[in-house]
Design brief:
This protein is an alpha+beta fold. It contains 23 helices and 41 strands. Pfam families: C2, GRAM, VASt.
Length: about 1050
């Protein structure tokens, strides 16, 4: 049998901020708390299960006052009064329904508050058995033997009962069950009963038996109905913050939040069963959702199961308690507490998970979306020395489990891709504006005092000429030459000439600017891949060299070596660019705020960059003052926009401050909207990884959306960034830090978490100037080290991770203890080199690689190349030097002169060995030389290994030096060798002079296509022609002037 209790209202209470607590047997529940009123109106319905024999049972209704203690940030409760109603009185009523009745409250307990009259409470009670029909469609008249205290109170009770049919409740709507009960027969009005009072005064004082701990009370309503009931109280509850352990899942789905909630947590959920089967979970016992009454009523359930065994832990039993913290219809928060007492130290901690389901962004198709976030933490019940080990093990286990969770969800639900959020056609239609014609611009440009006054003077003079007769020739005038006859005429003519000159300059300037206008505006991006679109809105506070002169500004954008130029705005320090919106640009964030921004109908000029194979990292912006087509434009300011340090919503409406001597004092700014679109989607990422596999020499797998999302959130990266690979390593500083090195298309990032102390930084591939490999040493734990050197002034945000900073201001990062150093080094070097090539160069090399078939050739040994005297060589240098052969050959002796010259010519770490005689060749000597080119000589800065041989000429009056170069760490370096020959002989022109000839030959070890070989050969020949000439010029100056200085 069920007992329905309707708590309607109370009056004459001595205190405010009250609530009602109900108890029927062991079952308890309570109303919400109403503040700042002595006549609270609750209008709440409760259901209790009672025994069929109601004779000995009773309902206790207690009214409490809630006290807030501001000093200790907690609350206490104070009993105002209570009433005990025997259920037999309800059973004796017609239809077992007690109509709305005012019950007096009594408080016999001494303590904080003692009052003779504690107020009254209006209740309605009804008992219903199984299948009992309690709906009555009429209101009966009151019986003649009804006992009530006075007529006024009776009228108020009846009026309240009638008003509940004709008006809405003050706070909450009247439920269907309440309406049916109140519509029942009102044949008796029951009032104060002496037996009830005596029962309340009995020794069994309920105030001493009511516990602060709220027990569960059951309900026969469905899961959906229970969720709807919680909405009434949870609307004012805030969504809790993420737990501090970290985020396990952060994904958006095209599904309404309420449907996602039912999909995950409804009883007998198919997803829960599939998840248990996927993870090998057995003995799953899912308890029912039951009510738990606290300050706010909520649903809770308990699930027990046996977790599958792992490599480290055997199969263990686990208990989950799931509790709804918030359920407002469109926002849900479920706290899950997992206890595993059978695992080691399992009694010392519990795992807490917080599922948050919130509304997602609007979808162009009109479907609802939801945002699911799952966070975690370890709640330690007692202190333990194994805290860090427990947290690490829990993190690893949860990560693997929720990776499976995300994958299974992705199979059942459609994931919302942030790149698909925007409706291009809608964005285009909202951005379109009317184009301003050249005539309108001309009127706006020439509508000034100078032009108007000049036109007026010209017309005035013309009219004067027409009205006047020709004057007589006088003074120095001749026939056809009319000179001014007075100083006034001379002054007027001069003013007119000056004005005409100024107007002519304005017209010329306007025409040139109109020709410059739109040079890149309106040009569509070509190709497929990553398309960068810039909407140039306006500029403010642009400064000029001369404050009295007006500006004609235009903006140049540079990205990945390509530029786009805006139109010129005439005579303004606050330019606004107006143009036709011919491009389909869109933002990757389609929230309402961003959409509303676009609805403001801004004017702008749209500039698109051609499609790129990988997402761009940096956009360079510079503002110039237009002075004509052949004059060098003056820079008004510049800035660099790092696309990875701004979210898509920030880039879609961005104000950037300009740098420079003129811009910073005047606080010059530009208003831009930047959009990055991958028009090939996942295919662009797959193609990029396929291309990088050829460079790296190993398979690169596409990471899952969950891993990419975790990587993006770890470093705060935009959604288009994708992870390529990651390696475990040590960051070497004063103390080594163990962590992970993350590699993506645009950044190198490092993350470590050592006992809660986090180290996190990243820098761009474009910031790297050099990468060095250091041999194993004791300091590097007997493993090679990888040293990454950034350019001057680059990567300053990551300076806390650098080991040192050299005298040039370059940051140096040391990484060591890789699990597989060769794999990590090869991947990092390949990704870095890829960023140094332009798009056209990379495409050309990739095309030739597919067409070329490589075949080994016999000439592979350096000795064979040195001995091949019949190889045809090209002369690249010849000169008569005013120095003797002996002085010149000191350059090949490995002494100070050689080190000095090679250092000045761009060779780093120059290390020549000593000459040794070649076996079986008495006059031939050989040595080895190693060094490294700096960046000015080669963008790759590769290592160079040389083998040199020297021998006297046939007449013993000179020397021949043969050199074979092996270039390392550059593309196709294993396909060829560079052979140089220096022939030094005595000069026939002077006594102490010599003649020097230099020859070169590129020896191909592997046959390549003819075009490829010709291009590479020409490039190397041109470079060494200039290099050999530079070396011998340095040598000549050093020998001549160095010897003079030493003599003096």
């Amino acid at each position: 049998m069920r007992l329905y209790v309707y708590v309607l209202q109370a009056k004459d209470l001595p205190l405010q901020t009250t609530y009602v607590k109900l108890q029927a047997g062991r079952l308890k529940s309570k109303t919400r708390t109403l503040a700042n009123t002595l006549t609270p109106v609750w209008n709440e319905e409760f259901v209790f299960r009672v025994h069929d024999d109601v004779g000995a049972q009773q309902l206790v209704a207690s009214v409490f006052h809630l006290q807030h203690d501001a000093a200790f940030f907690n609350a206490s409760k104070c009993l105002i009064g209570r009433i005990a109603i025997p259920l037999s009185l309800v059973a004796d009523q017609h239809n077992q329904t007690l109509p709305p009745t005012w019950f007096p409250l009594h408080n016999t307990k001494t303590g904080n508050f003692i009052a003779k009259d504690s107020g009254k409470i209006l209740l309605t009670l009804s008992l219903h058995g199984k299948g009992h029909d309690h709906s009555i469609n009429h209101l009966p008249h009151a019986q003649s033997d009804v006992y009530h205290e006075d007529d006024d109170e009776f009228e108020r009770s009846c009026k309240l009962s009638q008003d509940m049919f004709s008006a809405k409740a003050p706070c909450l709507k009247i439920t269907k069950g309440m309406v049916k009960t109140i519509a029942g027969r009102l044949d008796k009005i029951f009032h104060k009963n002496k037996e009830v009072s005596r029962m309340d005064d009995s020794p069994s004082d309920f105030s001493s038996t009511v516990s602060d701990h709220e027990e569960e009370h059951s309900s026969d309503c469905s899961f959906e109905e229970a969720i709807e009931l919680m909405q009434l109280e949870h609307n004012q509850v805030d969504v809790p913050e993420n737990l501090d352990g970290g985020v396990l899942v952060d994904q958006m789905y095209i599904l309404a939040p309420c449907d996602l909630n039912k999909f995950l947590f409804a009883p007998d959920s198919k997803f829960s069963k599939d998840m248990a089967q996927l993870q090998g979970t057995t003995d799953v016992q899912e308890g029912p959702w039951t009510w738990k009454s606290e300050d706010v009523s909520c649903l809770t359930r308990v699930i027990t199961y046996t977790k599958a065994a792992t490599k480290l832990v055997k199969a263990v039993k686990a208990t989950e308690e799931q509790t709804y913290v918030k359920a407002s219809g469109h926002e849900f928060a479920i706290l899950v507490t997992v206890s595993t007492p059978e695992v080691p130290y399992g009694s010392t901690f519990k795992i807490e998970l917080l599922y948050k389901i919130m509304p997602g962004p609007e979808v162009p198709t009109g479907e609802e979306s939801s945002h699911l976030i799952v966070s975690w933490r370890v709640n330690f019940q007692q202190s333990t020395m194994m805290r860090s080990m427990i947290e690490g093990g829990a993190k690893q286990g949860l990560k693997e489990s929720f990776d499976q969770f995300s994958d299974l969800l992705a199979q059942n639900l459609k994931i919302l891709d942030p790149m698909d959020l925007s409706d291009r056609d809608h964005m285009l239609s909202t951005l379109e504006t009317e184009h301003q014609s050249d005539w309108e611009l001309a009127v706006e440009y020439f509508a000034n005092f100078t032009v108007v006054f000049t036109v007026f003077l010209v017309l005035y003079f013309m009219l004067h000429v027409l009205l006047c007769d020709s004057s007589k020739i006088q003074g120095l005038e001749i026939d056809g030459l009319d000179l001014p006859d007075s100083f006034g005429e001379l002054l007027t003519s001069g003013i007119l000439v000056i004005l005409l000159q100024r107007v002519y300059n304005m017209v010329s300037h306007f025409i040139q600017a109109r020709l410059q206008r739109g040079s890149d505006h309106g040009i569509k991006a070509q190709g497929d891949g990553w398309v960068l679109t810039v909407a140039l809105m306006e500029g403010v506070n642009l400064a000029s060299l001369n404050s009295s002169e007006s500006l004609d500004p235009y903006v140049v954008f540079t990205c990945n070596g390509k530029t786009r130029t805006s139109s010129v705005k005439l005579q303004t320090h606050d330019p606004q660019w107006k143009g036709d919106f011919l491009k389909k640009t869109f933002s990757v964030n389609s929230s309402k705020d961003v959409c509303n921004l676009f609805r403001r109908q801004y004017y702008a000029e749209i500039l698109e960059f051609d499609a790129m194979e990988e997402p761009p990292s940096v956009l360079d912006v510079e503002v110039f003052d237009f002075d004509g087509p052949f004059d060098q434009a003056a820079s008004l300011g510049h800035c660099e926009i790092n696309l990875l340090k701004h979210t898509p919503s920030e880039l879609s409406d961005l104000w950037v401050s300009l740098e420079g001597k003129l811009a910073q004092p005047s606080q010059s700014k530009l208003h831009l909207r930047i959009f990055l679109d991958n028009n090939k989607g996942v295919e662009a990422i797959k193609e990029y990884l396929t291309k990088m596999e050829k460079e790296v020499g190993k398979k690169l797998n596409l990471r899952s959306p969950h891993k990419n999302s975790t990587f993006q959130k770890l470093f705060g990266l935009p959604p288009e960034e994708f992870l390529i690979n990651d390696f475990t390593c040590q960051l070497k500083r004063k103390l080594p830090v163990q962590g992970r090195l993350f590699l993506s298309a645009r950044i190198v990032g490092f993350y470590a978490n050592l006992f809660g102390r986090k180290t996190k930084f990243f820098f761009l591939w474009g910031d790297i100037e050099d990468i060095q490999v250091l041999p194993p040493s004791l300091a590097s734990v007997v493993s090679p080290s990888l040293v990454i050197v950034l350019g001057k002034g680059r990567g300053l945000d990551a300076r806390h991770g650098a080991k040192s900073q050299d005298e040039e201001g370059r940051l140096r990062f040391h990484f060591q203890s890789f699990v597989s150093f060769n794999d990590a080094c090869r991947t990092i070097m390949a990704l870095w080199r890829t960023r140094t090539f332009t798009t056209d160069q990379r495409a050309e090399i990739a095309e030739e690689q597919q067409e070329q078939e490589e075949t080994p050739v016999i000439l592979e040994e350096v000795g064979s190349i040195l001995d091949a005297e019949d190889i045809e060589m090209s002369k690249i240098y010849t000169a008569e030097l005013p120095i003797c052969i002996t002085s010149l050959m000191e350059f090949f002796d490995g002494g100070e002169l050689e080190h000095k010259i090679m250092g000045k010519s761009g060779c780093l770490n120059y290390a020549p060995a000593s000459w040794e005689q070649v076996k079986h060749k008495s006059d031939v000597y050989e040595r080895r030389v190693s060094y490294k080119f700096n960046r000015h000589v080669s963008i790759f800065g590769g290592e160079v290994s040389c083998t040199q041989q020297k021998c006297p000429t046939s007449n013993d009056e000179g020397w021949i030096v043969n050199e074979v170069m092996l270039l390392h760490d550059i593309p196709f370096s294993d396909h060829f060798r560079v052979k140089l020959r220096y022939q030094i002989e005595k000069s026939s022109l002077a006594q102490n002079a010599c003649k020097c000839d230099a020859y070169i030959r590129i020896v191909w070890l592997k046959v390549k296509s003819t075009n490829f070989q010709l291009r590479i050969t020409q490039n190397i020949t041109d470079k060494f022609t200039h290099r050999v000439k530079e070396i011998f010029e340095l040598l000549e100056r050093e020998i001549l002037f160095g010897s003079c200085n030493s003599t003096t």
